[in-house]
Design brief:
Blueprint: E1 10-15, H1 19-34, E2 38-39, E3 48-53, H2 58-77, E4 81-85, H3 86-92, H4 94-99, E5 105-107, H5 115-121, E6 127-129, E7 149-153, E8 155-156, H6 167-170, E9 175-176, H7 179-191, E10 196-200, H8 216-224, E11 231-235, H9 244-252, E12 259-261, H10 269-275, H11 281-294, E13 299-306, H12 313-326, E14 330-335, H13 353-376, E15 382-390, E16 398-401, E17 407-411, E18 420-428, E19 433-436
Parallel strand pairs: 1-2, 1-3, 3-4, 4-5, 5-6, 7-10, 10-11, 12-13, 13-14, 17-19
Antiparallel strand pairs: 8-9, 15-16, 15-18, 16-17, 18-19
Helix pairs in contact: 8-9, 12-13
The structure holds S-adenosyl-L-homocysteine (SAH), iron/sulfur cluster and FE3-S4 cluster.
FE3-S4 cluster is lined by residues 17-18, 20-21, 54-56, 86-87, 167, 170-171.
């Protein structure tokens, strides 16, 4: 097949959502560039804008509509195409074209490989591509946004159907990328000088190599053998799938960071059940104990939803209690948002917005206090920090992350970007550490 020619197209991609969306946008950029299009750095320099969207909460969808409002003004002045990609595209499909006349095409996550051909053959007419495929479709083209830490998608989709979550309806059922392709990508990144890789999937622990049937621990062990990769991380893990083998692999590996994102969502047994999470609070806490016993330095983070239908004050207290017990390095907390097609959206006992707001504030206040205490205790320690570049707030300061994935801002007399630096921690706040590199 000859490559469609998109010379003349100047594209800008706006990404919302999770790391997988960020990685997908890198692939979309790679596909468009390979077909002759050129990336630009602002929507008004472009003649093609692709908005890669997230549907996980109502607020995420609102971001799309407010951006479309701004872009539709450009559209009146000059000829250009607006495409909606990602999870909103997959969820609302042709509704988007009907409701938003400024949108020219809608493309779901399983269809990006078709983009050049579709742009070429449908330039004058609107198009939609939201089919789902059962098997993995490899997209070799990629234009990465950083040269330090590389994303590698290992699986996509979810079979868990947590009652609040729209992701199974946007990403479809689980499908797995062949381990060979994952390893080649990791080797390739290492040979280009990347020091860290992050393996991505909605539910990485259910990974099975489609060719050999081996699981996630075996994949991690193989990636751990790749020469010159210093740090390996993976996200997201489901608590019900953390098995002794995985803990053993993390403990023994040379390069896997002792860091794990393990969403609990809620502390109450009753709420967890209605969420259809597939574990009890007791089981979750047992996993946490195993992890801490095997790796005393492990840094844990989590996701919390407050105000799930029927959540009582006593249920909510259980969530606060988990935060006190586990002492997470970091959390991501959200107000419950009813999503289309989900079981929870049909449940009774909706919690008033004011109460959801108040509970979110209490979760965040407690976690801020805990993080301040834990970070304060790190002053005086020395960490290896992978430097991602200059701090956005202060160009005199470098910014990077330690093994625990905490932000460390530090001063140094030398050029540090893309290197591991030993940083002496001299100060702390609730959300980051401050330090100094030796001269
Ligand atoms: N696959 C991952 C990520 C799912 S989305 C996982 O299973 O952990 C990321 C987070 O968004 C979830 O962990 C959850 O905390 C939050 N989330 C998902 N649906 C939500 C909803 N309807 N309302 C509020 N938060 C939600
Ligand atoms: Fe959503 Fe649950 Fe699947 Fe995560 S495991 S993507 S929260 S359904
Ligand atoms: Fe959002 Fe889709 Fe990721 S809904 S969180 S972009 S999987």
């Amino acid at each position: 097949m000859t490559q469609p020619d998109l010379t003349g197209i100047k594209f800008f991609i706006q990404t919302f959502g999770c790391q997988m969306n960020e990685n997908d946008s890198e692939h979309i950029a790679g596909i468009l560039s390979a077909a002759g299009a050129r990336p630009v750095t602002a929507p008004d320099e472009s003649n093609l804008v692709v908005i890669n969207t997230c549907a996980v909460r109502e607020k995420s969808v609102e971001k799309l509509y407010s951006l479309l409002g701004r872009l539709s003004k450009f559209k009146k002045d000059k000829e250009y195409l607006i495409g909606v990609a990602g999870c909103v595209a997959q969820l609302y499909r042709s509704d988007i074209l009907e409701k938003k006349p400024c949108v020219d095409f809608v493309i779901g996550p399983d269809n990006y490989w078709k983009l050049p051909e579709m742009l070429k053959s449908h330039f004058q007419e609107k198009f939609i591509a939201t089919q789902w495929y059962r098997d993995w479709h490899e997209i070799p083209e990629i234009q990465r946004t950083t040269a330090v830490s590389g994303y590698i998608t290992v699986m996509e989709g979810c079979n868990n159907f947590c009652s609040y979550c729209v992701v199974p309806f946007t990403r479809g059922r689980e499908k797995f990328r062949p381990a060979q392709n994952i390893l080649s990508e990791a080797e390739n990144l290492a040979s280009m000088g990347y020091l860290e890789v992050q393996l991505l999937g909605q539910n990485v622990n259910s990974y099975r190599d489609p060719e050999t049937g081996t699981g996630f621990s075996a994949l991690l062990e193989a990636v751990d053998q790749v020469q010159d990769l210093v740090w390996i991380r993976f996200i997201t893990s489901h608590p019900k799938n953390i098995d002794p083998q995985l803990i053993h692999t993390m403990q023994q590996a040379k390069s896997i960071c002792h860091q794990l994102h393990l969403p609990i969502q809620a502390g109450s047994e009753a709420v967890l059940k209605r969420m259809n999470r597939g574990y009890s609070r007791k089981e979750y806490m047992a996993v946490i104990s195993h992890l801490k016993d095997a790796m005393p330095d492990i840094a844990l983070s989590t996701d919390i939803i407050v105000g799930f239908p029927g959540e009582t004050e006593a249920d909510f207290q259980q969530t606060l209690d988990v935060l006190e017990q586990v002492r997470y390095t970091n959390i991501f907390s959200f107000r419950y948002s009813a999503r289309p097609l989900t079981a929870a959206s049909r449940m009774e006992g909706s919690i008033p917005l004011e109460i959801k707001k108040e509970r979110l504030q209490r979760v965040q206040d407690l976690q801020k206090k805990l993080q301040s205490e834990m970070n304060q205790a790190k002053v005086g320690k020395i960490y290896d920090v992978l430097c991602h570049g200059k701090s956005k707030k202060d160009p005199q300061v470098y910014s990077g992350r330690n093994y625990a994935h905490q932000v460390v801002n530090f001063s140094s007399g030398q050029e540090c970007e893309g290197k591991f630096i030993r940083v002496h921690i001299t100060g702390s706040g609730p959300y980051s550490l401050k330090g100094r590199a030796p001269d």
